[in-house]
Structures are given as C-alpha cells and as structure tokens.
Specification:
The structure holds 2 protein chains of 2 kinds. By secondary structure, chain A is of the alpha+beta class. Chain A has 12 helices and 15 strands. Chain A has 3 domains: 212 residues, Multidrug efflux transporter AcrB transmembrane domain (Multidrug efflux transporter AcrB transmembrane fold), CATH 1.20.1640.10; 64 residues, 2-Layer Sandwich (Alpha-Beta Plaits), CATH 3.30.70.3220; 232 residues, no CATH class. Chain A is elongated. The two termini of chain A are 35 Å apart. The longest helix of chain B has 37 residues. In chain B, the strands form 2 sheets. Chain B has a 4-stranded antiparallel sheet. Chain B has a two-stranded parallel sheet with strand order 1-6. The chains are: A alpha+beta, B alpha+beta. Strand 15 of chain A pairs antiparallel with strand 5 of chain B.
Chain lengths: 537, 376
C-alpha cells in the first residue's frame, strides 16, 4: 500500500516534470489571446442561403489567406455558424476585414494565355483545338497539371489536359440526363448580373489587368492551385452559380473527373453556353480554348472546352487524382450557392492595453494565490505543505496542457481564461479545506491520524466529485453553447476542474496518507488540530 | 454570528459552534426577501445597462492626449453626422495612460472609419492607436439568446444530477438558492448601473457554479448525517443544524480562499494596475461569492429542512429542536446526545416505536474506540 501511494505520488510529479521538460525542449509556449497581445478580431456570420460546402470552403480560404499573410498564431474559430477570426499583431482593421471577407464564390473566366511556372516544364504550351466529336488533346507534353505518378487512362493523350464535355458520352446534342432534368431549378434567379454582357469579351488584349484577382469585370493574372501554371484570364463570363450544387467526383471515361449539372434557363445553361461557345471557337476572348474555374484568385482547374454547347450537365475530366476531383467538386458546390459572410463584430485591441491587462492579471493573480497560501499556512500549519505541493502540481499540469494545446491546436489564453484559472484556484483550495476539516473531525472523534486520513479522504472524494461534477457540467454546457469570451472562460474552468480531480486523487491522497503514516508529522499539534478544547488557539 | 471574541473564534476553529440556523431561518429569509424584492424592483424600474456586445454598436477608444478630451470627441461626432447626445463618452484611466471611450449605436463601416480617422487626427495620434470595437445589433441579440439557452440547459442538467446524486428536494433547494444569488448579483448591477459585458455574464455563470458547489458541499454533509442518524428519532431541523455547523468552518475557509484572489483582482488588478476588463468581472464575482456562501447556509439548508419535514418519517418529529449546548454536543460528537434521545422518546411517548429508538440510540452513542497504532 505504501509503495503504491509512493508510486502514485512520484508518478504524478514525474509525469508533470517530464511534460514540462518536453514542452520546454519542443519550444512550446503559451499563445496569448487577442486581448492579451493586441490585434483585430472579426466575427462573421453567414446570411441568406448557403450550403455547408460553401461555408467550409470560405473558412478554408480565410485560413489560407491569413496564413499567406504570415500572421503569427491566428485563431480561426467556427462557433456554430459564426466564424471568428482573431489576428494577433494585426493593427489595421480595414486590412483585417478585407482579408476575412471571403465568399466561396467561383468565377468562370476564359483563359487568354497560360504558361507553366515549374522549372522542369519548360515546354511552351500548345493547345490543340478540341473538337466536339472526339476528345482532343495537346500533343506537347506541357501539362496543364503536373500530376506525378498519375496512372494514364487508355486514351493516353487525353490525360494531359482537362476537358469539358456534356454529361453523356455522345459529343453534342446530348440528351439531358434524367436526373439533370429533374433537379433543374427554374426558380433560380439569373446570376452574373454584375458581369459584363458577353459581347464585351471581344478584345481581350485591350483589357486592363486588375490588381484585384477577384474583380470579375477585369482581366487578371493568377496561378493555378498547385502553382505550376500562370494564367492571364479575361473578365468572368459567369459565376459558379450557373451550376446546381450537385457536383460529384466520379470515374468518367476511366479516370477521376467531376460531374455537375447546369441550372436551366438564362442564369444557368444559357450563360454557360455563351462562354463555352466562345471558348470552343477559340476566338479573341478565349484563344486557348480553355476555361478557368477560379476560386478567390486561384485557378482550381482550367479545362479545354470540347464542345460548343452543353445541355443539362458538364463533365470535367483530366488527369485528376481522386482527392483532386473531390476538392474540385466541393469548390463547384460551394460556388453554386456561395455563402455571404456578414461582419457581425469587430474588435481592435491595442497591444499596449493588452500588455497592461496581462501584467495586471498576472500580478494580481499571483498576489491572490500568495495570500491564499499564507492563509492556509496560518490556519493549517504543517498541512499547508500539501496545499503548496498540490498547487504547484496543478499549476504544472495546467501549464503543460495549455502550452501543448497552444502549440498543437492554436489554443490561445485570453484574459477571461486567465481570470478563469485564477478563480478556479478557489475550487482547488476548497478541496483541501473540505479534506482537512473532515480530517479534523475524524481526529477529534479519537481516530489515529493514519486512519483519519484514509476515512477522511474517502468521504472528501465523494464530496469533491459531486461538487466538481456541477462545475464540469457548467463548463461543458457553456463551452458547447456559447461564443466568445464566455466560451474561453468555460474551457479554462473545465480544464482547471479536471485538474483539481486529478491532483486530488493522484497527489493529495498519497501525499496526505504518507504524511499521516510518517511519525514525524504525526503529532497532532503540527496540524493545527488540538483535541483538548482548553488548548490555546 | 461569532461576536469576534476569543472564545467564539476558538469554537469556530475547533468546529464547536452551535448556531441555530434552522431556528433563525425566518430572519435569514426576511433578509433574502428584502434583497430579492429590491433587486427585482430595480430591474423593472432601472433595468440593466447592457454593454456594446449585447445591444450592438460601435466604440472608439482614443488616447487622451493634450488635444483630446470629451468635448473634442463630441465635436468629432458632430462633424461626422452623429448626434453626440446619443453617445456615451467616458474617460478611462489606468496607471500608464488615459483614454477616452466613445460609444454610439450601430453604424455603417464607412462612418466607423471616418470617425476613427477624425478622432486620430484630433488627438494627433496615428489612426492605428485608436482602437475600434463594433458589434452588430443582431449579433448581440444572438449572443444573449445563446447565453440564455445555455443557462436553461445547464439548469436542467444540474437538477437531474442533484436529484440523482441526492434527492429532488435538495435539487429544488439548491436551484432556489442559486436563483437567489444570481438575482441579487444582477440586482447589484442594476442598482449601481454597472455595464453588463460578456465578462459580466462569465462572472454570473461562475457565481451560479460557485453557489451550487457551495450548496452541494453542505448537502453532502446533510445527506451523511441523515444516514448516520437514521436509526434515531432526530427531527430534521436538528440534523440540518448539526450539518450546517459542522461545515461552517469549511464554508468560511473556502469563501475566504475564494475571495482572496478575487479581491486581489479587484483591488490590485483593476484598482492599482487599471485593468478595467477585470473590474466588473471581479465585482460580480465578489457579490456572487458572498451571496453564494450566505445562501448555502441561510437559504438552501433550512429550505431542505422545510421540504423534508413533509416526509412521513420526519413529519411526526416536528417539534422543538435542540439549541445551545445540546446542539453543540451533537455538532462535536456527530451523534445524538443521551439526554436528547431520552427527551425525544418521552415527547413522543405512546408512539409504538419509542422503545426501539432507545436501543438504536444506545448502539450509536459509543464513540469509536481509538485504535492502537499498528506497528509495521
């Protein structure tokens, strides 16, 4: 028994120490939340109709944009539908808002010219005209997509370029696939009203090139998704809203491709066919015969158009890997019903304010804990050793968990969280107070210290578990159902409560029992407990 | 309760108090009722000063330089087409700097930018030094709704848990005590017209947790004693009084240890170092912890006694309960005194079980024999 207690005591201290060493050697640090570091926080919420893909895609885009900006330790939090973006160290509010305003909308643009970027693919691209009757390909090996290790389908040449064809295998005049006709939605409002009429596409060379890659009315220069090709694109002739949100990745003609249906009417099929026929003919606006699917200034795919007009649906084929086809399908789904995120709340915290607050919280918290310890020492004398030890161990556990989560999943310690931890010191201390008071009762009832410690802990443990369960219930409900600082607080409250349970069982229990067994502190006076009522107090 | 002299403090320290919590319940209930009525009246009459995050709006915070004060801020608002009469302009100061905070209702983004630039110009600082907080009113409403929903679900869960772990009577009493604490804390905010911020909500929720935590520790003791006195004919009032006195020291110690960090946050954090974010948080916690400790002893426990008195087992035992030294003896020993047991048996003379109770008491009156230290 003694050995097991000692094992538990040494074990918990060793684990905490090892974790501290591990975290320190990995260079992990506690990430400070926005309110402690200064920066901008933007909360957005989707308005109107959107599908879950478009929200996912929008959040991913935000993440990529923020990462590209090089903001250190940004936080992008999905809270229900709300998207909270915390950008520590960013002090320009406008820039931050622009950065996070992403829609998941897809633009369809004609490719004016394309050239590979990767040093290996030096062969200039020569796009052969594709005919509707047979899927045509480029003769040159200059790939529009460099896909290492991709298996080549039977029709080997086709694999080098992505193509667009109607759903059905027959080239033109294809009958709409049944499912397409059924799902076609007549009530969809016409899209692309802010786009220029198709007749304006004519002179691409004269188009000024816009620096904003998302400007639908201008020509732009953008890269493709894996950075292998750079394109000059004409003004968008349509948005992804010409499609129904039913894009799926599928095996098409022996390789992975994406199949999607077109909305009916002027906002869907008609608009798409205007662009498709221009690209197919290879005239001024679309000399390469390729059409780029662009999401947030990145070309997702730039397939060659294989037929002048489409009916019902579109197949996008090429040398896709399964994952790439699925990604493209998701992008198309998102584009079909893009999410409109509306800024709901913006907070700029100046870093000086944050610094002051941090120092104030830290100093006040440490002084508070010191006062509590002083009170414990005055009141419980020798027993306070266990309290000090327990607080050090629980502090160690908290530090380890927070640093680890900071490094691994971007948890940031906010002011509310820090306050939550300091407040939870009260809960931890209470466990000791309940235990020691119980111990006093047992000793007073005439039991030996050793016996009292065992019995006392048993009943105290029940009390601690009951009371901590309520705290955990509170923490969990709040964390799950609320947003913002309340959520941060709930997380740290829950963490601290769990730590309290762990420390009570693995540290306080063995420490107290071993103390009670060792003869040296066995004298009752040392515990601030005096049995005789006449004793000086 | 303790008059502060040495002997009663000593009694408290040694767990020998004999405060008749149950007998004085009416006094406690009256105090609570007065506070509750004051809170509710204030809530209806004055309402709550809901902060930016709940009502929506825009706030700018600009360093109070030589060329910047509240009047200039008003001029800036007027220049930008906003009515300064509807604005809330405060001067905030802490150890290192003074800032002017200007708050108005929800504004379009270009107005927000324009005011930010004008304020920066007026204060002759760069516009980055002017921090902006803006919350749309719909978002504020959504946050409030979410918080309320979380609260309701939490209450349901806690009621289920306490009913399962203890009994439904205790769940009712605990929730009543908790409601008491939260209403009074919210009342303090209404009376003093403190601004309710998300931090305040966090604090209220903490209060709720603390209050329940405190109450559960006391109820745990009551449940223990109900079990150990189950063979006797102790009235529930005695059991509750004994339990409350037995946990009194723990309640005081815990409250002191919980209050010390909060007081430190309040006095040092926001007072000396000027972290304003902490001030409201700390005030709410302070009030909540005080009422929490108070209600667990004065409200929740007598309430349980009143509820349990309707049980058949205790209904027949309603009568005078022990006070003074008799109570003290029971608090110290954790056992009914011989005198008490006899008197109780006489009082219920004629009852069929009077003889049985004597023998049951006799078995339990032996204090545990001190064991000899075993050698190992």
């Amino acid at each position: 028994m003694t050995r097991r207690l000692l094992g538990s005591l040494i074990g918990v201290v060793a684990v905490v120490l090892l974790a501290v060493v591990g975290n320190l050697s990995a260079g992990n640090e506690i990430a400070l939340g926005l309110d402690l570091q200064g920066g901008v926080s933007v909360t957005q919420e989707p308005v109107g109709e959107y599908n879950s893909e478009s929200l996912d895609v929008a959040v991913e885009r935000i993440r990529e944009r923020v990462d590209a900006l090089g903001v250190s330790e940004p936080e992008i939090i999905r809270q229900g539908d709300a998207v909270v973006v915390n950008l520590p160290g960013v002090d320009n509010q406008d820039e931050a808002i622009r950065l996070v305003q992403v829609t998941g909308a897809v633009l369809l643009r004609p490719v004016v010219s394309a050239s590979p970027i990767s040093p290996g693919a030096g062969v200039p691209e020569t796009e052969a005209p594709a005919t509707g009757s047979a899927p045509e390909t480029t003769a040159a090996p200059g790939p529009s997509r460099s896909i290492p290790g991709a298996t080549t389908p039977d029709t080997a040449p086709e694999a080098t370029s992505e193509t667009l064809a109607t759903d059905s295998a027959s080239p033109s005049d294809a009958e709409p696939v049944d499912s397409v006709a059924d799902t076609a939605d007549d009530s969809v409002p016409p899209t692309g009203s802010d786009l220029p009429p198709a007749s304006e596409f004519a002179d691409v060379a004269a188009q000024p090139i816009s620096s904003d890659p998302n400007d639908p009315t201008a020509s732009v220069i953008v890269q493709n998704i894996d950075g292998t090709e750079i394109y000059q694109l004409g003004p968008a002739f349509a948005t992804g809203e010409v499609f129904n949100s039913d894009a799926t990745a599928d095996i098409i003609q022996g390789g992975w491709g994406v199949r999607v249906t077109l909305k009916r009417g002027s906002g869907g099929e008609d608009l798409w066919n205007i662009g498709a026929s221009q690209c197919f003919s290879g005239t001024g606006s679309c000399p390469t015969r390729r059409m780029a699917i662009v999401l947030d200034g990145v070309v997702q795919s730039a397939p060659t158009v294989n037929q002048p007009s489409f009916s019902g649906g579109v197949d996008i084929t090429g040398n896709f890997k399964e994952s790439e086809a699925k990604d493209l399908a998701r992008v198309l789904k998102s584009g079909a019903l893009p999410v409109r995120l509306e800024v709901q709340a913006v907070q700029t915290v100046s870093p000086t304010l944050g610094e002051d607050s941090l120092r104030a919280t830290l100093v006040a918290g440490l002084i508070g804990i010191a006062l509590v310890l002083l009170f414990m020492i005055l009141y419980y004398r020798t027993l306070a050793i266990v309290v000090v030890g327990g607080l050090v161990v629980s502090g160690g556990i908290l530090w380890n968990v927070i640093t680890f989560l900071s490094a691994s999943s971007g948890l940031a310690l906010s002011l509310a969280g820090a306050a939550g931890i300091i407040v939870s010191v009260g809960i931890t201390i209470d466990s000791y107070v309940v235990f020691f008071e119980k111990l006093k009762d047992e000793v007073k009832a005439g039991r030996t210290l050793r016996n009292s410690a065992e019995r006392g802990f048993k009943s105290t443990w029940r009390t601690i578990v009951a009371a901590d369960t309520v705290s955990l219930l509170a923490a969990f409900t709040l964390w799950y159902l609320t947003v913002g600082s309340v959520r941060g607080f709930a997380f740290f409250l829950g963490l601290a409560t769990l730590t309290d349970l762990v420390v009570a069982w693995f540290f306080t229990r063995p420490a107290m029992m071993l103390l009670a067994r060792s003869g040296r502190v066995g004298r009752r006076g040392a515990f601030g407990i005096k049995v005789a009522p006449g004793g000086a107090s | 309760m303790t008059t502060g002299n040495r002997s009663s403090l000593g009694r408290l320290f040694h767990g020998e108090t004999a405060v008749d919590f149950y007998g004085r319940r009416r006094r406690g209930f009256t105090v609570s009722l007065v506070l509750l009525v004051l809170s509710v009246v204030s809530l209806f009459a004055r309402g709550l000063d809901l902060g930016l995050d709940f009502e929506g709006g825009v706030a700018w915070q600009v360093p109070a330089t030589a060329s910047m004060d509240a009047d200039i801020a008003r001029d800036v608002l007027r220049e930008n087409g906003l009515d300064p009469a509807n604005a809330k302009i405060q001067k905030l100061s802490n150890a290192s700097e003074e800032t002017i905070r200007v708050q108005v209702a929800d504004q379009p983004a270009d107005v927000v930018d324009a005011v930010q630039k004008s304020l920066a110009e007026a204060a002759s600082v760069s516009s980055e030094d002017v921090s902006v907080t803006s919350v749309s009113s719909s978002w504020g409403r959504a946050i409030t709704e979410k918080a309320i929903r979380a609260l309701v679900i939490f209450l349901v869960l806690v009621t289920i848990y306490i009913s399962w772990r203890f009994e439904w009577r205790m769940a009712v009493a605990a929730i009543a005590a908790m409601a008491h604490d939260v209403v009074i804390s919210v009342g303090v905010y209404s009376v003093l017209q403190f601004e309710v911020t998300p931090a305040t909500v966090v604090a209220f929720l903490t209060i709720l947790g603390y209050s329940l935590y405190d109450t559960i520790v006391v109820f745990d003791k009551v449940q223990d004693n109900v079990k150990s006195f189950s063979g006797t004919r102790m009235p529930i009032a005695d059991i509750v009084n004994v339990s409350t006195n037995q946990v009194l020291m723990r309640s005081i110690n815990t409250s002191v240890s919980s209050l010390l960090p909060v007081l430190s946050l309040l006095i040092l954090g926001s007072g000396v170092f000027g972290a304003v974010t902490l001030r409201e948080f700390a005030i709410a916690l302070l009030v909540g912890m005080l009422t929490g400790a108070y209600s667990s002893l004065i409200v929740a426990t007598p309430l349980v006694a009143l509820l349990k008195q309707r049980e058949t087992k205790y209904a027949s035992l309603v009568g005078p309960h022990s006070t003074g030294d008799t109570l003290r003896a029971m608090v110290v020993s954790g056992l009914p005194t011989g005198v008490r047991a006899t008197r109780r048996a006489e009082a219920t003379d004629g009852g069929p079980s009077s003889g049985g109770s004597d023998s049951a008491t006799a078995v339990l009156t032996h204090p545990p024999r001190p064991r000899k230290k075993r050698r190992r």
